Fold:
Amino acid sequence: MRSLLLRLYGVFTTVVQPLVRRKLRRRAQAEPGYGVAVEERFGYYDEATTGQAQCWVHAVSLGETRAAAILIAELRRQYPGVPILLTHGTATGREEGAKLLEPGDTQVWQPWDTPGAVGRFLDRFQPRIGVLMETEVWPEMTAACAERRIPLVLANARLNEKSLAAAERLAWLARPAYSALTAVWAQTEADAHRLVSLGAKVAGIYGNVKFDATPDARQLTAAASLRERLPKPMVVLASSRDGEERMLLEVLKRFGATSPVPPEQGAIRSISKRVHDVQWMIVPRHPQRFDEVAALIEAEGFAVARRSAAGQPSEAEIWLGDSLGEMALYYGLADVALLGGSFEPLGGQNLIEPAACGCPVVMGPSTFNFAEAAQLSLAAGASLRVEGMEQAVTAALKLVENPERRATMAQAALAFSSSNRGAAERTAAAVLAIAQAAQPVTAKGEPVEEGGEPARAEPTLD
Structure:
């Protein structure tokens, strides 16, 4: 029996659907991906969109999709041919997720959290198990899966203090949602404690599946070949967020990167030469900002060379990494990486990826999204923490000028990455064990099998 509060929540999400549609139309003007298959978000599907008795994996955005890619690969290794239903909430997530599909897989949008949309989604796909990646827990979806006895799990789970505080303010929704999950596998002990405080059934602390990612060997080989031809060492601001590119450019300008420094300004002239002796590169986190960042670089007085443009960029330009799926190439080129998302109060981006590429990292003060990984990285000697962008640039210049320390940090990064692997294998085994034991039911409480009829055979995932 649903609570009155949950029913009122369902009424609210239904009533605001026109606003959601309007928001999607606005987003589609800047990112056309948001205009694709909009009706899927409300539980309406083309006749060709099929796929029942699948392992459903939900990866809301780009970062979660990259984590899901690692888990899906391990699921396929442990259970070859397992059909995957993949859902997303953002255009970048869906674009990245399309690369993971194999014959028999299905990809649609995450349904908006109304009783109608969620019900139509579950009726159409009848997943054997649902795997939510990292943070996405919706009240209606968890309630509907519990009613149908569809196991819904939270994998690679993380919950920082800020998100916990927000959930506690809406405890009447959050606690029933988290408690309805079949199992939760946390990244860290701190995440586990926070999740338990919301009523989640934490079944294990497995670590972060992103440690199990293998950098693209072809990209690393291409990077090694290109590095041999680079006249300067490279520092990359990787996965940068809004505001951080301007911070870097202003520091470089202040250090004399755009104009000669008079001889009498000895100290500044010295650092100006050091700045000019480095090739600087910016790789924005979100592709919809590529053009915006390119315009910003030019407005700040720098020439910009874009990865997407043909031709060999000149030394004097700021390089712009305006491509998706090439982070291994960028980290392979870089002597030092400045960690995006850590210089604004945004919690930092993934620092596991540069570690796997053997790239030393300089991070800012904000790393709450990867708190334990940041601490482990610092303890291993794979990274440095600074107070702000000016200190980051200074630290990067010192590392560039100290090849022995840089090599030591690179080896520490590789060791840090390899020593924390294994989460994907453990998580996949746990997902398959729960799926094999599951027997979903219809909305009316009747057992179902592939095709939607009352069950007469064993579950698909045996």
Observations:
- Residues 119 and 144 are 7 Å apart (CA to CA).
- The longest helix spans residues 62-78.
